[in-house]
## 1
Amino acid sequence: MSKRKLRGAALGDEITAIVREIVARHPDAPARTLARRVVEESNGAVTLEQARSRVRSTLGVHGADDRRQSTQKHLHRPIRPAGQRIAMPPSQAEPWLPFDLGITGRVGILSDIHVPYHDETALKAAVDHLQAEKVDALLLNGDWADFYSISRHEKNPKLRNFRNELAAGRDLLKWLRQEFPGIRFVAKLGNHEERWASWLWQHAPEISDDPIMGIDNWYGFNNLGIELVGDKRIILAGALPILHGHEKGNGISSPVNQARGAFMRLHHTVLEGHGHRTSTHSEPDMMGSETVCFSTGCLCDMRPAYARLNKWNHGAAVVAVHADRSFDVENFRIQAGKVRQS
Ligand SMILES: [Fe+2]
Ligand SMILES: [Fe+2]
């Protein structure tokens, strides 16, 4: 064999290897697309037609004899009978369904506690009121923890102690469970708790989806009998949908009346937190049915460093759910440790 022929054979082997590797990597791509990749990766050593012929042979669609003699049958594509149509690829979207509390009775709703930057007086007043109302279930409607230490915002290093923040969060949940023994206890992730998952994705992506790394595990939800609701799911108390408020994304920011802002975005009855303000907005439609939106106050420090001046107020809510799923909302404010009705 001449030197030139040897080079040719070696080049042929190399192209064969390239074709097989590309076919193995992209088994479902069209032959012409794969051929283009072969031309590219072989630096133009073969023409597009030559590459396509090799790709088709490797896929086993170059005629029955070629298919029979192939030594790479594992790379073959199933032969489609003439006239067979390609099916639509299955959707990988996952269903996003509401979390129905399935409760008839009174649901106490505490939102935006932001531990360890909670307001002790306001939180105590809210808990006392919920106890007096004999609630049958407790819902922490997001931002129960602040997660200041792992926020992406600029941070004061003096305040940055994640271990202490986690400990304070655990103590808060233990205290709440002690104050409300034996009743249903549900906690929803707000934008502040979602910092946990974002932080894990950034710092420990390989183990971020291990259940042991879940926020519920770190806070001991199992031992305390707390149910976690994440994924921005809507919570249903009877016919009343409840959101933390961050699920809507940004759009109408800081509306004068938060409940009206919610109505403008959702056009549906809803109760939400997140805005740290108590408000209500009701609007009848042409046929006389009424949509009512509620926003609840917060239970955190009212003068945090990042928002010294704001329009927040303290507050919480009790939702009475009736057997026919209709409901009544008591959306109360708290001033200087006293419950005030709106
Ligand atoms: Fe909040
Ligand atoms: Fe929030």
## 2
Amino acid sequence: MQPFTYVKARTVADAVRAMADGGPGTRFLAGGTTLFDLMKLNVETPISVVDVTGLKELGGIDTGRSSELVFGALARMSDVATDPHIVAEYRALSESLWRAASQQLRNMATLGGNLLQRTRCAYFRGGEPFPCNKRKPGSGCAAQGGIDRGHALLGGSDACIAVYPGDLAIALVAFDAKIDVLGLHGQRTITVDKLHREPGVTPNIETTLDPGELILRIRVPKTRMGRASTYHKIRDRESYAFALASAAVALDMNGDTVRAARIAVGGLATRPWRAHVAEQVLTGKRLTPQNAREAGDAALQGAKPGHDNGFRIELGARTVADALTIAKQRA
Ligand SMILES: Cc1cc2nc3c(=O)[nH]c(=O)nc-3n(C[C@H](O)[C@H](O)[C@H](O)COP(=O)(O)OP(=O)(O)OC[C@H]3O[C@@H](n4cnc5c(N)ncnc54)[C@H](O)[C@@H]3O)c2cc1C
Ligand code: SF4
């Protein structure tokens, strides 16, 4: 085990200061289900850990405001997944959470930590001797030329094709959610769509957060489209598995005709992937099986298959089409 310093933050300002004092390689600790996992694998070796679990400012679920839902960064996945208002009015959000991980993990894991979970690429998690530009910049990418069945078809680069594994962020991107973050230089707001980066030549830099910035809360604009929404997740087994392909969709329907659609795909790209072109394909059209499939194909536009993952282009298109059909039945 690598020794590390443990700091329990008393206020959010404390937490941000402790991160700066700890220096590079200091990590916030929330539920610990990603961080401790990677520390046990020696993939993450923080010199200092700042525990934020006691910060009341980061808790809470507020669905009572007129314009937005507000989730504290420490809100538990299980609490948000089962909140009656979310279950009834924002089904894609609730489903993205309860279709993730296991009940034990969801009871422990927080929304802030969920957004910042790291890839499940086996070469990244496996450590040495596998080359991995994300874990060790400049070392290469074992997935390219290796087993890439679960790797990304969208948003990859020569340096990295690791999939962004989370479910919640896909639904949040479809709902145009934002996060408030606090750093040494104050507070700012980022859309969840802009939080995760494509790997480019620096796959080790995964988000647009400045070093040491703390996620305070997640804000989701209220919309009537939440009721006609779903998070559809296809995986190797029925539960407790990451997505091979997923889709978060929300619809505004006028009878059979689509007034507006929101579509984001997961499990297929290096970051949560909003499919604006697919949304345009549907707007003003009847939502027939054929049009749903056309939207599915549009969502996968530009997908680049590797060695073993080409089958997920068809799977992804069908997942989007099926999600649209499910959401339509809820309109
Ligand atoms: C076996 C297993 C199966 C899983 N299956 C799924 C799945 O199917 N779908 C899915 O979406 N997820 C899945 N997960 C991932 C799980 O949902 C995440 O591990 C969890 O949500 C992370 O939350 P946490 O509070 O435990 O984060 P932590 O482990 O505490 O933190 C994760 C990262 O976020 C940082 N962090 C935490 N909170 C903040 C904050 N407020 N501000 C800034 N940085 C912060 C930490 O420093 C760390 O780098 C699975 C995990 C496991 C172990
Ligand atoms: S895909 Fe990315 S995370 Fe996986 S081995 Fe290649 S560089 Fe590492």
